[in-house]
Amino acid sequence: MAGSSLLMLLDDIAAVLDDVALMTKVAAKKTAGVLGDDLALNAQQVSGVRAERELPVVWAVAKGSFRNKFILVPAALAISAFVPWAVTPLLMVGGAFLCFEGFEKLAHKFLHSKEADQTERQALQEAAASSEVDLAAFEKDKIKGAVRTDFILSAEIIAITLGTVADAPLLQQVVVLSGIAVVMTIGVYGVVAGIVKLDDGGLYLSQKTGEGAWRRFQRSFGRGVLNAAPYMMKSLTVIGTAAMFLVGGGILTHGVPVLHHWIEGVAQNATPLLGSVSVIVPTLLNAVAGIIAGAVVLAVVNVAGKIWRAVKR
Q1: Which residue in 132, 220, 166, 205 sits closest to 23, CA to CA?
Q2: Residue 232's Cα: distance from chain center in Å?
Q3: In angstroms, rounded to a whole number, what is the distance separating the alpha carbons of residues 139 and 57?
Q4: Cα–Cα nearest to 181, from 75, 254, 79, 43
Q5: DSSP 3-state helix, strand, coil percentages of the chain (rounded to 5)?
Q6: Which candidate among 10, 45, 68, 77 keeps its CA 20 to 30 Å from the CA of 35?
Q7: Domain coordinates of the chain in residue numbers?
């Protein structure tokens, strides 16, 4: 009897772990879209920091990220336990915010001249290089800004994960949310650390001495890394912006059943014409919905801002 009870307990534990693994995998897939933007934003946050302080700054932001998730995970569990109906509206708000951020980036790209952006970057570099600037305060401001950015993105990741496990037992919710929080933080800031030191690694390899084939390969590879690093940062920004529309638009369309069913119908009707390529139709339509939603939210925010400034006068 005891043996069979133990086996039943082990079977239950295995079933729970299997469910947790499955839900964690699903949650990780859904939150992956946010990570591209998370990586790009956090890597950019340490620009202007002295090379020897880059990793300490990344570590400080990572600790802030853990603190953020220490707040967000219990809050998400409390929402799931006491006001589960709020999960979908929160996801919708988060999706709209992602679309807003993405469209704001596009608007900035097209509405600001290259000269204005270059002047802003040059002013930042001169300020960072000036001996009159308090470098400790500059670094602290960088960390605070990065932690604030992380809080917003972490909230979105936790909200998406909560939507995945909202109907699961409390234990599975705790394990999945905690696991996603830890894995995402370690993964994101591990990659960020690698990105910000990528050019240093390339420089180190490019300065290797020696005439052997291996040394020549190292120097060549190092020069390639140095040349590729700026383009990698730019590509992360593009991927992150696209992910905002894809993820945010997907959340919004799934929250509106009529729109979700319409997209599914369009995809089914497109199958005879496009064949296997039709699988990308829902993704493209979600992205279009995300762009439209972002434009609407940005317009509303700008109008509300103008009204607020007029009232304050």
Answers
A1: 166
A2: 16
A3: 7
A4: 75
A5: 90, 0, 10
A6: 77
A7: 22-235
